[in-house]
């Protein structure tokens, strides 16, 4: 017995008592909340994934020392592809010939382009600023570094914070007493009274308000170019007293604390 059972009883009770307007209004409001949450999630995913929205559909593959344009889906591991100035690196790989300058700040945070030569690794979705190279493919599809990051971002808007989990747990725990009270009052008063009691469950409000509130913060952060890996960290933010940076190149502005 959980909150969803009470929702079904509210709809059933209003239909049986022929309060069709109440049925329509309740159903509309309940579904509107769900639609708004889904739209917020979709918008959040779009904002977060927009960091890597530049995609490559075709690549130059090396066949018998000739460059052949092919769909990226046809590239396999150990194939050799050719990248030129101004192009995106299509897949993860290792340079086997040539030297290039790569802008990979969107992936690594490095503000300064880096020089890469034979034996160096390159990553999909980074930009070749200058040079020409042959790259032996090491990862394709969902195994590339950028694809793994995108998978993390996709799951960001499907989290449930600790506060939301606690709220829904309480709402589900309250379902049985509310159900019992409604069933008890229905024959003593009327079915409408029992239905009204079923409608007192806080589950819908907790579910919608908690998820929507946290998603709004994620969207606001994304407008400031801040990517939140997991919304649950927002609850722990007040307890943070130290920030650790893995390299000085990440710091593009001076921060005074």
Helices and strands in order, then pairings?
Layout: H1 3-16, H2 20-49, E1 58-63, E2 66-71, E3 80-83, E4 92-103, H3 105-108, E5 114-116, E6 121-122, E7 127-139, H4 145-156, H5 162-188, H6 191-198, H7 203-223, H8 233-236
Antiparallel strand pairs: 1-2, 1-3, 3-7, 4-5, 4-6, 4-7
Helix pairs in contact: 1-2, 1-6, 2-7, 5-6, 5-7
What does this structure look like?
- This protein has helices spanning 3-16, 20-49, 105-108, 145-156, 162-188, 191-198, 203-223, 233-236, and strands spanning 58-63, 66-71, 80-83, 92-103, 114-116, 121-122, 127-139.
- It has 257 residues and is of the alpha+beta class.
- Strands 1, 2, 3, 4, 5, 6 and 7 form a seven-stranded antiparallel sheet that branches.
- It has eight helices and seven strands; from the N terminus they run ααββββαβββααααα.
- Strand 1 (58-63) and strand 2 form a beta hairpin.
- It starts with a helix and ends in a 21-residue tail after the last helix.
- It is elongated and about 90 Å long.
- Helix 2 (20-49) runs parallel beside helix 7 (203-223), helix 5 runs antiparallel to helix 6 and helix 5 packs antiparallel against helix 7.
- 47% of the residues lie in helices and 18% in strands.
- The model has no long low-confidence stretch (mean pLDDT 78).
